[in-house]
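Homework help board

Subject: predicted structure for assignment chain

Our instructor gave us this sequence and asked us to write out the predicted structure in token form, then describe one feature. I got the tokens but I'm not sure how to describe them. Can anyone check?
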Amino acid sequence: MTTTGEKDLGWMELAAAPADCPWHTPDDIVAHWAGLEPKAKTFVKALRACTQHDVARTGGRWYLRYRLPKVSFVGGPPAASPALPKHVVDAGRTLPADLLALYSVHDGFGLEGSSVAVPPSWEVVDGLQPVAKLEVLSAVCGRSPEGVPDEDPTSLLAFAVEGAGERIGIYKQYAGNPYKDACRWDHETHEVAKVGPVLTVLTRKWLARLR
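My token output:
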């Protein structure tokens, strides 16, 4: 079940996973998602209903594939205490609780993809980026009356990339605290706008692919 143009990761059935694989039974998978179910009930329910799983190891990382009737999702290994990249630490940024909860299930997660990229291609568009690919970007929320951006070079911690190059991330107000909700970042103007809670924004995209 490899998308045209993508490298075959060497998928094997879950039951054949070796000892160092993070998952061995469907119960292992369900247990990882349990903590997110209260806030992402519909999507977690859909994944619980999945009965076909494959695993693969590439680049020193394990991946889990959920083979659903219409699409497949792929997730990286659990990261209960993810080590943030140096550029994120140097910017003084941290992960909010909902993102930490997602990374404790999968370090990177999304639709098995449609673009030719370093496998798996879900790392590129509309997926939770692996911790190693988190971006720190300049952003501005609104502009001064003179039209001069009040822009902070470390104000957006981006965790997802949309098809047109826009980013979804956590916006830190200039010299202030991060917004609770995720924001969409315009790659041309660097302006941001709130789009909703982190889990809601991501699972809404993934649920749309199931319909």
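Reply (TA_rk): Your tokens look well-formed. For the description, you could write something like this. The CA atoms of residues 59 and 119 lie 10 Å apart. That's the kind of observation they're looking for.
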